[in-house]
Write a structure and sequence with these properties.
The protein contains 18 helices and 18 strands. It is an alpha+beta fold. The protein folds into 2 domains: 272 residues, Endonuclease, Chain A (2-Layer Sandwich); 207 residues, 2-Layer Sandwich (Endonuclease, Chain A). The two termini are 29 Å apart.
């Protein structure tokens, strides 16, 4: 996780918003959390983390104030500025006695082998890799063999994204641990969303982490490099190399160009804004939904469904007035189409925001959507497509130290409201991969005020200045070469993998 940096841009930019972290930094620190949980037995406090700045500061403050444990579970962990600083924050927590456990999916982890081993050598840090068939400790010939002999297995990934502190506070949502998920990539960044949970749902989140941690699919990183045969890499680190990794991480975070002293001060700032934030935290019934390790029992085909999909399908089936959805990818299975057809038939207004061809980061997924876009529109769905240069980009990104050329913006938030009474924020994309292959998580918040707030945020993204109407064929704004590429993908039978 050391060595790659787009560093000078990062945390210099977050001074403009002190967010939940500043608010929760009450004089007694996490004691405030204890008092709030005691005051709301059987309930969960929920707060929308809608910008990258507030989501990053929340994680930073929580890591610095954890007393006993931190569990993190991610699909992507990059070796860019955010990834390095997050790693260093966890290392500092472990240095002061916090038990740190990290579970990362194998497919897109971006970290040198020796760095992973050095971090795992810390007495307070445990790292496990989920379903390691692609990358960590896997030589190329073994990866190719895995694809040939276990195609479903290599495609079953852990898409969960959770950050849990002391079993009391948790964050889940769309953001992975990389610059572009926190609005700090200067070329391409995501419009994303998390939800912060305090109390009961955070405990449920931790229980799910424990189930994944105990699964045979979660392999200690040390075991990925302990073989001398052809099936594993032979990598090791000595004490000097371990200390060198720790020293480089701490030195990196200490440099003002990477992590400004003013930002550290902001994280520890006074709780002046707490009254406002306290009013926005909703204490209500929250259900943390999740899949089981491995997703489902199928081993020979790509279907099978999962618990998270079932929970969301029930919300759609129960809708009577309105459904509003944000999903970066929109590829509906036959079952999903039937659910939405039935909803429209009983008078439910369905509005969906997804990426345009101009904004998407995934041409393969867009090809699946493009193959069925006209059909979905004929069903009566109101579909909007996010612009790569939405008018609200400046408000969502940091206002300090902006890049001269604004980055391309793409939708990555996965959210839904039903009848202005129930809200969902999580990791589930409305596509076959989330339905059948990837494990997913999220929070279902049953509170009308919370749902109305989330709906207002999503509908603002759908305004004409931020999104195109899908019926207006916005592909015409994209160069012919890109349109040609997506047409080629449309010809391939990829739908179960999208």
């Amino acid at each position: 996780m050391i060595g790659a940096s787009r560093g000078a841009l990062l945390l210099l930019a977050i001074l403009g918003w002190a967010g939940w972290c500043v608010a929760v930094a009450a004089p007694a620190g996490m004691d405030y959390v204890d008092a709030e949980i005691a005051a709301h037995p059987g309930r969960t406090g929920a707060y929308i983390l809608d910008t990258g700045e507030e989501a990053l500061l929340a994680r930073a403050w929580l890591a610095d104030h954890a007393r006993g444990s931190i569990e993190v579970q991610y699909f992507i962990w990059s070796s860019d500025n955010v990834g390095i600083l997050a790693t260093e924050a966890l290392l500092r927590a472990a240095d002061r006695g916090v038990a740190v456990r990290v579970l990362v999916d194998d497919l897109l982890i971006d970290a040198p082998d020796k760095t992973l081993l050095a971090l795992a050598a810390h007495p307070g840090v445990d790292i496990r890799i989920y379903n390691p068939k692609h990358k960590v400790g896997t030589p190329l010939h073994k990866r190719l063999l895995n694809v040939a002999t276990d195609f479903r297995g290599v495609n079953q990934r852990m898409h969960d994204k959770t950050f849990i502190v002391d079993g009391q506070v948790g964050i889940t949502g769309g953001r992975n641990m990389a610059d572009e998920y926190f609005d700090y990539d200067r070329d391409y960044t995501f419009r994303d969303r998390d939800v912060l949970l305090v109390g009961d749902a955070a405990q449920a989140m931790r229980a799910n982490f424990e189930a994944f941690w105990a699964s045979p699919l979660a392999v200690p990183v040390e075991k990925r490099f302990d073989g001398l045969g052809l099936m594993k890499k032979n990598v090791s680190v000595n004490d000097a190399e371990v200390q060198k990794v720790y020293r480089e991480l701490h030195d990196y975070a200490a440099r003002p160009g990477n992590f400004a002293p003013e930002v550290r001060a902001a994280i520890q700032a006074t709780p002046e804004s707490f009254r406002r934030i306290a009013r926005e935290i909703v204490w209500t019934q929250v259900e943390f939904i999740h899949d089981v390790p491995g997703k489902n029992g199928n081993r020979w085909h790509l279907g099978g469904g999962g618990r998270s999909g079932e929970a969301l399908a029930k919300l759609i089936s129960d809708a009577r007035e309105s459904i509003v959805i944000q999903s970066p990818y929109l590829v509906m299975s036959n079952r999903a189409k039937a659910l939405f057809e039935a909803a429209v038939a009983r008078g439910v207004k369905v509005s969906i925001l997804t990426n345009s061809l101009a904004s998407t980061d995934n041409l393969q997924a867009f090809s699946g959507y493009r193959n069925q876009r006209r059909e979905l529109l004929k069903m009566g769905l109101d579909i909007r497509e996010y612009k790569p240069d939405p008018a609200n980009r400046g408000n969502l990104m940091s206002r300090a130290n902006p890049p001269e050329v604004p980055p391309v913006f793409a939708l990555h938030a996965k959210s839904m409201t039903v009848d202005d009474r129930v809200a969902y924020i999580g990791t589930f994309n409305f596509d076959p991969r989330s339905e059948n292959l990837n494990t997913e998580v999220g929070a279902i918040v049953r509170d009308a005020g919370f749902a109305r707030r989330l709906r207002a945020i999503m509908e603002a993204d759908m305004r004409p200045e931020n999104s195109w109407r899908a019926a207006d064929e916005p592909d015409r704004y994209v160069p012919l070469t890109k349109r040609g590429q997506v047409r080629l993908w449309q010809l391939l039978p990829l739908k179960p993998l999208l």
